[in-house]
Amino acid sequence: MSASKYVVERSTALSRTAVWAAVLGACVLVSVPFWAEASLMRWGVEVMCFLVLAQMWNLLAGYGGLISVGQQAFVGLGGYGLFIFAQHMGVHPFWAVPLGGVLAALVAALTAKLMFRLRAGYFAVGTWVLSEVIRIVMSNISLIGGGSGQSLTVMARMPKEFRESGTFWIACALLIAASVSINLLLRSRFGLALTAVRDSETAAESQGVDVAGLKWRVYGMSAFGTGLVGALYYLNTLRIAPTSAFDLNWAVAAIFIVVIGGIGTIEGPMVGVALFFGLRWLLADYGSWYWMAMGAMAVLVMVFAPQGLWGLIHKKTGVELLPMRRRLLGR
């Protein structure tokens, strides 16, 4: 039968509807500073930071197969990059945010060769050790406050409304750019190669995939995005300290959100972040029980729904809002 009688479908009616719904949602999101209170905008920035953080970890681990428990290294580097450039070098704080991401990506590039000498669980432990080393170094630099941290006093020069609106719009830009870029990236030849490496490095390399180069690029992209998250988060809170910037809970939160939502899916981090903040709101008054409840839920999901909640929904209903697979259909 002639090949002309077939067509490759990369989207569905549901996915096209989901895209238009996302566009509408983005428009509503951008309008928030015109009608919302400052407290809602600050909370919104935090939610967007955690969603992008999860997306970066999902890109690294869910698609690249590089399981890291040290992403807090890049959160902290991005945050401290903001303070170094804005507080001590005179760069406008808003422009210092991307520079924080660049600093994180630079450190990732310098340490990647060492990290990639480690495999599987050793790589995960190695990323955590790297984070601790960077935390100790930052704790001993008096220029940026040492162990006690520092406040971003340069932000006091801006009018409060402009500062809060600008921070929120930067968060919107980061979330939209990250979501669109990851979606397009995974639909490209790069995304196909990345998935092949995740499934089997040996098989991918035998088919001509540059495994080492691919790992370098995805590690650097994830570090850059995570560094932007760190810079934006501490632009929102206006104070940084090594204990919070390099806290293991950054990695724990990213892993929880992705595992609960659905690792290796576009929709998973969105489902996971909604559940994460929902649980945090419900259990905020119970102290450490909050983390224990989330840990118990993560275990239950991994046992009964290894592909996460979105994976379970897809298995039961077949629904895909943003499908990555290509379908061969008859005309």
TrEMBL record:
<dbReference type="Pfam" id="PF02653">
    <property type="entry name" value="BPD_transp_2"/>
</dbReference>
<feature type="transmembrane region" description="Helical">
    <location>
        <begin position="93"/>
        <end position="116"/>
    </location>
</feature>
<feature type="transmembrane region" description="Helical">
    <location>
        <begin position="216"/>
        <end position="236"/>
    </location>
</feature>
<dbReference type="InterPro" id="IPR001851">
    <property type="entry name" value="ABC_transp_permease"/>
</dbReference>
<keyword id="KW-1133">Transmembrane helix</keyword>
<feature type="transmembrane region" description="Helical">
    <location>
        <begin position="248"/>
        <end position="277"/>
    </location>
</feature>
<keyword id="KW-0812">Transmembrane</keyword>
<feature type="transmembrane region" description="Helical">
    <location>
        <begin position="122"/>
        <end position="145"/>
    </location>
</feature>
<feature type="transmembrane region" description="Helical">
    <location>
        <begin position="66"/>
        <end position="86"/>
    </location>
</feature>
<feature type="transmembrane region" description="Helical">
    <location>
        <begin position="289"/>
        <end position="313"/>
    </location>
</feature>
<dbReference type="GO" id="GO:0005886">
    <property type="term" value="C:plasma membrane"/>
</dbReference>
<feature type="transmembrane region" description="Helical">
    <location>
        <begin position="18"/>
        <end position="36"/>
    </location>
</feature>
<protein>
    <submittedName>
        <fullName>Branched-chain amino acid ABC transporter permease</fullName>
    </submittedName>
</protein>
<keyword id="KW-0472">Membrane</keyword>
<dbReference type="GO" id="GO:0015658">
    <property type="term" value="F:branched-chain amino acid transmembrane transporter activity"/>
</dbReference>
<keyword id="KW-1003">Cell membrane</keyword>
<dbReference type="InterPro" id="IPR043428">
    <property type="entry name" value="LivM-like"/>
</dbReference>
<feature type="transmembrane region" description="Helical">
    <location>
        <begin position="166"/>
        <end position="186"/>
    </location>
</feature>
